Structure prediction request, 100 residues.
Amino acid sequence: MRSIDRLFAEYQQRFSFPDYFGWNWNAFDECLGDLRWLPARKYVTIISHADQVLSNERIELGTYLRIIHNVGKTWSTTVGLGYERGHADIPFNTVLVEDK
Prediction:
């Protein structure tokens, strides 16, 4: 996932993003914040080789980290998506693992 396109492709495949996914940060944020098509009591994403994430486009790393942080926060609050879907909270965690 050294590039934005590769990162989006991995998430699209793993989270079964709908065909209308727009291949940009707003669409990425929107799809992760919805996931109606992939209901679960919790979501965990494990990113191996975290040091390589967006290594070809480092300027975008902050945007990626901000989005996954905010999505996790929204899913896990009682006023967020978990509440809307009938649950007190739905954990949405991303684990970044640096393989050495």
Remarks:
- The beta strands are 43-47, 92-96.
